[in-house]
Specification:
Low-confidence stretches: none
Shape: globular
CATH superfamily: Ribonuclease H-like superfamily/Ribonuclease H
CATH architecture: 2-Layer Sandwich
Helix content: 25-40%
Number of domains: 1
InterPro entries: RNase_H-like_dom_plant, RNase_H-like_EbsB-rel, RNaseH-like_sf, RNaseH_domain, RNaseH_sf
Structural class: alpha+beta
Radius of gyration: 14 Å
GO molecular function: nucleic acid binding; RNA-DNA hybrid ribonuclease activity
Order of helices and strands: EEEHEHH
CATH class: Alpha Beta
Number of helices: 3
Mean pLDDT: 81
Largest sheet: 4 strands, mixed
Pfam family, one: RVT_3
Strand order of the largest sheet: 3-2-1-4
């Protein structure tokens, strides 16, 4: 397990962290997210479970990223930096290239 350190965003921005987990034995996943301000204060957090996860683990991470974005905007945070350990998902979120992977519908949802 790697330990992540908190990177302080510049004043006025909010850092949104997300992560996903998958238990293949029971096909259940979980996602978690946390939002911090530039002082490191927790501004919001959320967890959710995913039932009947069929498909690659990246689906869980992609859902976690989209939930993090949705949650941040629902809370009224618009100037955000999103971080997570799913580098492929983050790269796809930032790209406007046509998406042809299993997470395409999730990425399209995130961009709307």
């Amino acid at each position: 397990m790697t330990q992540q350190t908190w990177n302080q965003p510049i004043n006025g921005l909010y850092m949104v962290y997300f992560d996903g987990a998958l238990d293949r034995k029971v096909n259940k996943g979980g996602i978690g997210l946390i939002i911090r301000n530039s002082e490191g204060d927790i501004m919001g957090a959320s967890v959710a479970s995913m039932e009947r996860v069929i498909g690659p683990f990246v689906l869980v991470e992609a859902n976690a990223a989209v939930r993090a974005l949705d949650f941040a905007f629902e809370m009224g945070f618009q100037l955000i930096i999103i971080e997570g350990d799913a580098l492929g998902v983050l790269k796809k979120l930032k790209s406007w290239e046509p998406e042809h992977s299993p997470i395409r519908p999730i990425m399209e949802q995130a961009r709307t």
